[in-house]
Design goal:
Helix content is 65%, strand content 0%. By secondary structure, it is an all-alpha fold. Helix 3 packs antiparallel against helix 4, helix 4 crosses helix 5 and helix 5 runs antiparallel to helix 7.
Length: 147
């Protein structure tokens, strides 16, 4: 949807602020992930970012639902999309979606279009349900292939 920012559903300044926030958050995540190496085990990359080791595998004897998401995101940022997909399909899809949203925010900022018009047109419930189903399927995949 190409609606000029002045005709969007919110004030132009708010539309721009949201688009800049999305873009800034995306750049920060890319910067952080570009500065670390994906863990070859397929999980644990988050520990390089100062996060604690996940206790789920020791406690339950299987990977957690988000096991490998940071590693998959890191692989995608390092231009290894196949490796990202094999590592954690949900993480690869989530990261690709984030990059797509970030690119749209940048394009709307540069072209003077309303980012919020695009955001309001999404069927959020469908995305949440689809994301939850993908998360569960990816978790099953990780359990089957092992951590």
């Amino acid at each position: 949807m190409r609606v000029p920012v002045t005709e969007g559903p919110v004030a132009a300044w708010l539309d721009r602020a949201v688009a800049l926030t999305v873009l800034g958050a995306g750049v920060a995540v890319i910067w952080a992930l570009a500065g670390v190496e994906p863990d070859a085990r397929g999980y644990g990359t988050h520990e390089q970012l100062g996060m604690a080791e996940c206790g789920w595998p020791q406690r339950y004897g299987m990977p957690c639902p988000t096991c490998g998401v940071t590693t998959a995101a890191c692989y995608l940022v390092h231009w290894l999309p196949w490796r990202a997909l094999v590592t954690q399909p949900f993480g690869a899809a989530l990261t690709a979606t984030g990059l797509f949203v970030m690119a749209n925010a940048l394009a709307d900022l540069l072209r003077g279009y309303s980012f919020m018009t695009r955001a309001y047109s999404l069927r959020l419930g469908h995305w949440v349900i689809g994301g939850a189903l993908l998360l569960l399927a990816a978790w099953g995949y990780k359990v089957i292939v092992g951590v």
